[in-house]
């Protein structure tokens, strides 16, 4: 195993059998994978493709039928490697009769952490995940997003080197999702290695360095996100400070034709729904009480009064709602 | 029977320890061999990938350490036997051969050197091979277990135990059963009873109710805990931490045991407070105490067909606990031989002894409900009759001639080692106390120094009344070591330890089964074993084929045909043949699983408390330490099984 490879699998196979030993399903077939130190690795695939099985094999929750899985150069079924791993399950399977402090204290005790370190780390994590005001409430009373946050906190209690996240943004609203993604990137920037499993392709695209795509237990694709998504047949150029005009379009078309290409579209690009949502929420926090007014009801030229919303000016806007084909 | 306990089995004794260890090794070794065979079959059918084999010991290390450990385990009974003999701690009833103690140990190790009952020599090579195979199998199973145990950390076990405690305390089943228990505790005080039975009845009912309700609560909590964790997947976040699987098992066990111990202590204190409210004088006299009995060995002699027989008569009862002697015949007697006495007997002015015999009436009428007259003869080691029974009659005559003055009888007891009381009235269902003069044991210290083979005390009981029969058993007569030394309160708490043993047993069994089975199946299997333990004596009888009326299927045929239990069946009938064959199969299976069933009678000390007998902590028979050792000996193999089951369990598997 190369020095910077944290997780390695060789022909990792998992076959589920019934009580009599008859084959029921091949969940994973001869998976060969490497995850390097300091990267965010995404595991994608439809339901039943073997993503969660892979994670469970790496964590020792399942035993391989064939092949091997090594984490920190030790067999995945071993216990010693768990000192350096944090795991956030898809559903936050925590003990609902404990509160946040008790939860982190319990999991912290399972590591070789000194009491002072454990206490200070618990408080720090509770603050980081934004549960300071709810730390005395039992987990049974938490919302889905809050449980996901405390789940992440318990995964980070031991300051792990490898963090395994199974559907980390599942059930979170866009704010929560943005927060989670930001945190994951921060962890990577601190030198952690993250393996995440997700159905949300836009999240994976935004934050993962490399991905693997599974389907029916077989590895279909593996590589860097930027390389895999690269569309080598197209060229894109973006500019600011240019008003849209027919003249501009003609000039650009001429340049493109001169270089042997063909313009496909011309116009303003669209932002993502997530960006739109986040911006709206941010603005509403800055202007409390402001409401949306349809354009017909808005006096023209008049700035919005307090309590009224202004027409939304979006960056890269929807003044032209769709890119016109050329 | 008042204040006389019916003790039907051999008591647990320290001198039997080497032999007990030997038998335990044989029994556990058999199961270890079976476990290894099952594991080998699984390995051959479904070999794990090479990566999994890297975790743990290499094959070479496993074989090497197993061999070393097997030799150590095999030598253990011999070593214990040597140490026991060196300490002089051997069975006082064993007849020693005329060899030195050291030469005894030149015999092959698998000869039980301790109890006469199990000392049938088994020197054949085949038995030696079986024994060594058992030791090797135990060692092979123990080596990975010990390696796993060396990785355990108490702080993690403690964390998991605290979690289990907090989880269990919020369960409604705990509070529901505790409330029910409180109702029973106080309600039983109002059950009708005779005055002298007050404490006895209350202790019996309280102990029964507390034990059963807490056992059911504990079994439910323990059976469903791990399966619920697996179903809810909360165990995933624990297993993915640096937690050994066995720590999860131990944490559950410790947590639930701590909780049930707390409940037991509270219930015991409450019931004791309630008892202390008011105990009537009759009950105080009978059982509100903690006697320390000293038992002797019983030898009964009767006349059968004109000749002296070295056993008592049978009166036709199914319960053969007691033997019977006739009245008015000098040669029919029951002798209690005390082979050792506590040193504190010397120097006491008098020594009490108590007894409760059964009276079998051969005629109805005026003798019913009346006592019978018995003669008690006490002979110390100084007494010539202790060596030659023919001297007894002569000494008796001399004694009664001198018996006019109290001092004279004391002098006679001191000088001749002889004391006799005639005409003691023995009444059914009553315990009677009589006193011996302390002069009988004045020089007891000298006897101990000499290490004489003559027993320090022999007590002979003869029935004086004609046409009656006196029923006696070993534990019907005892000396009292020090009636005032220990008190009822301490004994009550010691008796509660018996319930605690039951709780530890049920919790570990339930947790063990729950590592692999679903909650409800774990609970059912646990309760089947527990109830089997309650009726173990009967199960043993069935397994040995000694039940009257045959085995279960034969009994069914008899019931369906309306045949009584002693009439022979028509064994040419197909149904009868089938039933008899089915019984053979059932007996075969029962014999194999008999060792799986816990001997709960060994952990039940209710009678001790109810009848007012002290429970020893360490030195005497059936002490708490011995019972604890027995509990550990029973639970240890189950703990090892839990270790392997949890280690091999895929916690994320849906099956």
Please tell me about this protein's structure.
The complex is a heterodimer of chains A (326) and B (655). Chain A is of the alpha/beta class and 326 residues long. Chain A folds into two domains: 5-97 and 159-229, Rossmann fold (3-Layer(aba) Sandwich), CATH 3.40.50; 239-326, no CATH class. Chain A has helices at 51-59, 100-109, 115-128, 144-156, 174-189, 201-207, 225-229, 246-258, 273-286; strands at 5-17, 23-36, 40-44, 66-71, 74-75, 85-88, 162-166, 193-197, 210-215, 218-224, 265-266, 324-325. In chain A, the strands form three sheets. A six-stranded mixed β-sheet of chain A has the order 6-7-8-3-9-10, sandwiched between helices. A four-stranded antiparallel β-sheet of chain A has the order 2-1-4-5, with helices on one face. A two-stranded antiparallel sheet of chain A has the order 11-12. In chain A, helix 2 (100-109) crosses helix 3 (115-128). The longest helix of chain A has 16 residues, at 174-189. Chain B has 655 residues and is α+β, with helices and mostly antiparallel strands. Chain B folds into three domains: 14-150, no CATH class; 154-285 and 488-648, no CATH class; 293-480. Chain B is built from 22 helices and 13 strands. In chain B, the strands form three sheets. Chain B has a six-stranded antiparallel β-sheet with strand order 3-2-5-11-8-9. In chain B, strand 2 (297-304) and strand 3 form a beta hairpin. Residues 95-121 of chain B have low confidence and may be disordered. The A-B interface holds A 16, 18-19, 21, 56, 59-70, 75-80, 82-83, 85, 87, 89, 91, 93-95, 97-98, 106-107, 109-112, 154, 158 and B 45-46, 48-52, 54-55, 151, 155-156, 158-159, 162-163, 166-167, 170, 232-234, 236-244, 650-653, 655.
């Amino acid at each position: 195993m190369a020095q910077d490879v944290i997780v390695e699998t060789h022909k990792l196979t998992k076959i589920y059998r019934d009580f009599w030993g008859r084959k029921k399903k091949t969940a994973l077939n001869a998976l060969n994978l490497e995850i390097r130190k300091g990267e965010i690795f995404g595991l994608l695939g439809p339901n039943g493709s073997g993503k969660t099985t892979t994670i469970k094999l790496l964590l020792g929750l399942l035993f391989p039928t064939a092949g091997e899985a090594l984490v920190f150069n030790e067999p995945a079924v071993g216990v010693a490697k768990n000192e350096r791993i944090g795991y956030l399950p898809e559903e936050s399977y925590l003990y609902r009769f404990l509160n946040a402090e008790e939860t982190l204290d319990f999991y912290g005790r399972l590591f070789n952490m000194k009491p002072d370190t454990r206490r200070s780390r618990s408080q720090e994590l509770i603050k980081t995940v934004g549960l300071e005001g709810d730390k005395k409430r039992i987990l049974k009373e938490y919302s889905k997003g809050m449980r996901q946050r405390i789940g992440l906190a318990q995964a980070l209690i031991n300051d792990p080197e490898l963090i395994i996240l199974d559907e980390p943004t599942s059930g979170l609203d866009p704010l929560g999702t943005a927060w989670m993604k930001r945190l994951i990137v921060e962890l990577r920037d601190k030198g952690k290695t993250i393996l995440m499993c997700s159905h949300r392709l836009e999240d994976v695209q935004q934050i993962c360095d490399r991905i693997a795509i599974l389907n029916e237990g077989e590895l279909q694709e593996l590589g860097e996100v930027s390389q895999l998504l690269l569309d080598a047949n197209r060229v894109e150029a973006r500019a600011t400070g240019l008003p849209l005009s027919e003249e501009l379009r003609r000039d650009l078309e001429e340049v493109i034709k001169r270089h042997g290409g063909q313009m496909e579209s011309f116009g303003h690009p669209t932002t993502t729904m997530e960006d739109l949502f986040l911006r709206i929420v941010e603005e509403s926090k800055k202007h409390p009480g402001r409401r949306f007014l349809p354009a017909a009801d808005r006096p023209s030229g008049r700035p919005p009064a307090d309590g009224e919303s202004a027409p939304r000016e979006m960056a890269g806007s929807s003044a032209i709602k769709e890119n016109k084909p050329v | 029977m008042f204040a006389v306990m019916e003790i039907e089995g051999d008591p647990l004794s320290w001198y039997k320890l080497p032999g007990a260890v030997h038998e335990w090794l044989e029994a556990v070794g058999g199961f270890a061999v079976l476990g290894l065979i099952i594991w080998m079959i699984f390995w051959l059918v479904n070999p794990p990938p090479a990566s999994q084999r890297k975790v743990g010991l290499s094959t070479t290390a496993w074989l090497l350490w197993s061999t070393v450990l097997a030799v150590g385990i095999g030598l253990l009974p011999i070593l214990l036997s040597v140490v026991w003999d060196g300490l002089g701690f051997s069975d006082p009833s064993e007849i020693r051969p005329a060899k030195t103690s050291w030469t005894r140990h030149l015999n092959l190790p698998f000869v039980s050197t301790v109890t006469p009952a199990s000392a049938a020599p088994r020197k054949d090579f085949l038995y030696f091979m079986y024994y060594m195979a058992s030791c090797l199998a135990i060692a092979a199973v123990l080596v990975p277990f010990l390696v796993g145990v060396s990785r355990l950390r108490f702080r993690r076990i403690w964390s998991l135990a605290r979690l289990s405690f907090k989880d269990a305390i919020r369960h409604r089943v705990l509070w529901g059963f505790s409330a029910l228990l409180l109702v029973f505790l106080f309600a039983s005080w109002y059950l009708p009873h005779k005055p002298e039975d007050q404490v006895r009845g209350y202790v019996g009912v309280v102990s029964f109710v507390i034990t059963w309700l807490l056992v059911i609560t504990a079994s439910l909590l323990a059976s469903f805990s791990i399966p619920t964790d697996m179903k809810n997947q909360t165990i995933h976040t624990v297993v993915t931490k640096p937690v050994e699987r066995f720590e999860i098992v131990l944490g559950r066990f410790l947590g639930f045991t701590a909780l049930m111990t707390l409940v037991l202590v509270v219930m015991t204190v409450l019931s004791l407070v309630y008892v202390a409210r008011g105990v009537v004088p009759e009950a105080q006299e009978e059982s509100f105490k903690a006697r320390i009995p000293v038992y002797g060995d019983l030898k009964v002699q009767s006349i059968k067909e004109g000749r002296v027989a070295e056993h008592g008569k049978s009166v036709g009862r199914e319960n053969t606990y007691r033997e019977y002697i006739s009245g008015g015949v000098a040669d029919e007697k029951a002798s209690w031989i005390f082979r050792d006495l506590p040193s504190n007997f010397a120097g006491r002015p008098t020594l009490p002894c108590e007894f409760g015999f059964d009276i079998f009436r051969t005629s109805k009428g005026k003798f019913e409900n009346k006592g019978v007259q018995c003669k008690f003869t006490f002979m110390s080691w100084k007494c010539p009759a202790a060596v030659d029974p023919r001297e007894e009659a002569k000494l008796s005559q001399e004694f009664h001639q001198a018996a006019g003055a109290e001092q004279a009888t004391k002098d006679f007891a001191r000088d001749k080692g002889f004391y006799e009381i005639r005409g003691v009235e023995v009444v059914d269902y009553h315990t009677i106390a009589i006193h011996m003069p302390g002069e009988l044991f004045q020089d007891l210290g000298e006897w101990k120094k000499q290490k004489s083979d003559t027993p320090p005390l022999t007590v002979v009981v003869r029935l004086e009344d004609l046409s009656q029969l006196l029923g006696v058993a070993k534990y019907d007569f005892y000396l009292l070591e020090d009636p005032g030394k220990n008190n009822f309160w301490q004994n009550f708490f010691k008796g509660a330890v018996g319930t605690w043993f039951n709780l530890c047993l049920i919790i570990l069994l339930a947790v063990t089964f729950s590592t692999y089975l679903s909650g409800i199946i774990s609970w059912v299997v646990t309760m089947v074993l527990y109830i089997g333990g309650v009726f173990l004596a009967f199960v043993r009888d069935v397994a040995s084929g000694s039940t009257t009326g045959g085995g279960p299927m034969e009994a069914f045929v008899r019931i369906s045909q309306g045949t009584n239990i002693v009439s022979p069946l028509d064994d040419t009938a197909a149904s009868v043949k089938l039933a008899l064959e089915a019984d053979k199969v059932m007996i075969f299976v029962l014999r194999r699983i008999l060792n799986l069933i816990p001997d709960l009678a060994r952990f039940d000390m209710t009678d001790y408390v109810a009848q007012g007998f002290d429970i020893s902590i360490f030195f005497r028979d059936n002490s708490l330490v011995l019972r604890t050792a027995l509990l550990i000996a029973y639970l240890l193999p189950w703990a090892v099984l839990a270790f392997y089951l949890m280690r091999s369990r895929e916690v994320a598997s849906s099956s």
